[in-house]
Amino acid sequence: MAARAALYFAYQDNFSGLSQRDVITAFIYGLRFDASTITIFIGLPLLLTLIPHSFAQHAGWQKTWLWFIYAMFIMLAIVLIADFIYFGFVNRHIGAEVTLFSGDPQLMIDIIITDYGQLTLIFGLLGGAFALLWHQWFSQHIHKPTHPTFRWITILLLFLVFVVIGRGGLQYKPISVADAFAIGSTSAGYLSMNGAFAVQHAAISGQPKKTTFMPQDQAEAIVQDSLSSPNEQFLSPDYPLLRTTTNRRNNKPNVVIFTLESWDAIHIDVMRRDRELSALGVTPNFDALSRQGQLYRTFYATGQRSMDGLAAILASVPTLPGMPYIGKGLEQSRLSYLGVLAKQAGYQTLFLQSSNRGSFHIDAIAAQAGFDQYLGAEDIPAIHKNVNKSHDWGVWDFETLNQAHQLFEQSETPFLGFIFTSTTHNPWRVPHQRWEKFPLTSERNRYLNSLYYADWAIGEFFKLAKQTDYYRNTIFILTGDHISPFDAEPKHIPSRYHIPLLMIAPGLAPAKIDRIGSQLDILPSIIDLAGWSMPYAGLGRSLFQDKPSSGIFTVNGNIIDWIEINAWLSHNLTNRIESYPPQTNAQLDVMEKKLLATYQTTLHLFLENRFFPAKYSF
Predict the structure, then answer these.
(1) Which residues form the domain of 170?
(2) Of 534, 549, 564, at which residue does a domain stop?
(3) Span 49-101, pLDDT tens digits
(4) What is the pTM of this model?
(5) How many angstroms separate the CA atoms of 194 and 147, rounded?
(6) Which of 529, 549, 569 is the last residue of a domain?
(7) d(CA 449, CA 20)
(8) CA distances to 93, 164, 192 from 30, in Å
(9) Of 158, 144, 184, 164, which Cα lies nearest the Cα of 17?
């Protein structure tokens, strides 16, 4: 309850749309989740301390389980604090990405010590003080039972009560994350659920069961209709997303993709002007480049974490609720990876990331995705001299981009280059004071400073690239992996995913494009623009096709958001949660059907491994 109150008062913007009655209802309804969480963690050890048998009344037995209960309380407190901090970054509780925290444990420890050292120290001191009080309390309350029969009856009754509380009531199915959103809105659902409950369910959830909202052939037909284009042909009913293009091009261009950490639309001046927002002055180079290519003004990430973005860009697939992330099991499905397709088209493939080589298993992901040459932070030489701060995530963006430029100059053409930056990741450091445009008085200012530096690094890369031969025959794609933690509108769902997409390519007329798109569309757009001709599969479609998109499929924890040009719908796979603008039931039915058809088709293809046939996998 205290954690819920802290969440409500600390993140008022997320809950400003709730009435006083909604807030009170969420607090009361949330007691189910609190009681369930506490019971599951301490119910059994508590019963074990009550056993009226001689071995169970030994001081060692009692102390073991009582200290275990205390450890569970400490763990719950740690999880609630971590979830409270995390909520500020993604505007929701921790979800399936809890499994990602093991991807780079040393980095996680470094961030905790560097950014939350004082909090960790205070928590440790309080934990030690309460441990003394706990020991003093149970030392005075360990007594042998005087009525063993009554104690056994008590244990039995408590067990039955704990079962009911642990499953959240007497309903048919145990309480789940989806039940938190049954009270009416996404914001109320987040407020009613506690972080420990969310983490517990995310950690133990395996692959989701097949869910059927409609006949499977109907769902697949809906998805195929949304993806179809005149120059593509679907190849197999067994692999409903498998298709090939007839668009051939003799002079194959190089392709360079910049996946920019935490770059979102709201902080880029050329996109801020579209919304009549004042300039921040941190993206002058991106703004200038936008006049040389096609800038997509309604482009969206498929999720809120980097691994969501990587799966979408590299394989044109989303990460579904409850399914493993790429690097954590998603790759067990046969997918048509960008690097593999590029090699089939005769390309040399290179992948560089600013973070450490094995961070979040991206080295293994890059290898499976078809990249023959891979460099991480350990492989990239330092350039900045006399830096005033270390970079927690590896090397600075300019060092990565400079190394990429050198490799591109030396590469045989055509080549595919993939660059994944990191300077704009928390804790948002810059190598020198010259990039401290804003005072270091808030995390937002630190982020803007890091964005200012990252934008400078991009500008320097293009200055170098324009002096080379490879530049004139290269498709450059600049996009974000997900939004930053700052300035999104909590009540406006599209703002939670709104990122830039800029394409600069030979013969591509500069323009501002208003058609809707997502990271899922990048792979098919490359195939189309570069003139590749081979089978591939994915949930995206080329942005260069005349047929407009029917909508964008995005994932926010356990919530699916469907975004259209001037409308959106949120769904928890049980009920509609929110929508905009006010629409008739018939209009909402159409949006819901497309959302559920996309989810059902994707889930079934993952579980049945029917994205991409083995005969096309190399």
Answers:
(1) 2-204
(2) 549
(3) 888 777 767 777 878 888 888 898 888 888 888 888 877 776 777 765 555 55
(4) 0.79
(5) 38
(6) 549
(7) 38
(8) 14, 16, 4
(9) 184
